[in-house]
User: Fold this.
Amino acid sequence: MLSMLEIMKKGAELVNKDEEFKAQMVELEGDIIFWRFEDDQPAVTSRLDKGVIVVEEGEHPGSQVGMKLKAKVLLDVIDNSLEAKMMYTYTELVKGDMELARHHVFALVPYIFGMQDYYDSHEEFQKMVSARKKECGG
Amino acid sequence: MSDIITDIGFDSKSLWQTKGFEPNPFPESTWPLLKELNLKKLTQIEGEDLTPIQGMVKQPMAEGTFRHFYTEKIEKLALMWLLISKSIAGGSWVGWPNDDYDFPALIIAWEESKKRLHIIIDVMPIVDVVEYEWYREKYQDGIEPVYNEYKDLIGVNSTYRWFRAMQGPYHIFDSPSEKRERALKCEMEYIKYWVELVWKAEPVKDEQYRQYVNRRKRLMMTQLRQRDPLGSVLMRTLGPELGKKSVVGYT
Assistant:
């Protein structure tokens, strides 16, 4: 079974190589968010490091925002069956508040839009997302 | 030379290139309706110079422009036309009466991407329309035929309770992704209606009511300024300086 960490890492790998998304992320730095999945292990941290999206295992203690959600919510955003901004509706903030979340999660827009693009255009990534979603009952 | 603005200087396609879709003609469809009001250019609000965002703004995550207007009845009327992350075309018109008038605020939002459209449409009452039922009859009930014609556009309301509390009785909110042309027509109908209201509006004479209207209007503006998620998006994508100007421009 694939973990969300593997899927998010693959997404980051693709987006970090894409000139269009690299250009959008060029000024992004220091936004750290952890993702605590109710039905997936391990937790994941995504952070912007000098315009590069870094995805790593665990809940980074320096995260400004921590989100608790079901894996399917993020998978739905990636395959665009859920509007990205609606993710908050299905997410419990376990660290930070809504103001911080809006600010820092917005830095992930190129990453999220990038994963949506690659879901449409990259067969391997699409298979990873679809397979995990199937396991979640989606 | 007249200082009335007759041209906004751009259309939906002239400022930027979207990815994978062509945005609907929001600026060029709505501007002709509003320019009827003989709008003048507003370059400063609350000491904030707006001219840096009235040119072309180009940042890594957003590009586009803003326009701000006023008349002898309108305190501010703001147009936004912005492309976010190459993928979302964001348009809006937000208009407020000045302190001598009580007509509703114009709230029009257009957020379009390849797969989705999100709209907000309202002639938002400045006063409590239960307490001031005549206000609803005078300024709002006239839009009811349009509301009824387009109520298929209405869907799940805003997740923000403060915003739901602010809405008028003819508010339209949702993501009618398959009805883009229709949604734009509805926005145009609401704009036409608001323009008529502005033309007909007379200054408020009752000083006590005037004070109430302005207190409530400032509260609405403040809540929008502090809480509207668009504000966070603008601050983040345009940076704190330009982001602040853009938020002050419409709230």
About this structure: Residues 4-17 of chain A form the longest helix (14 residues).
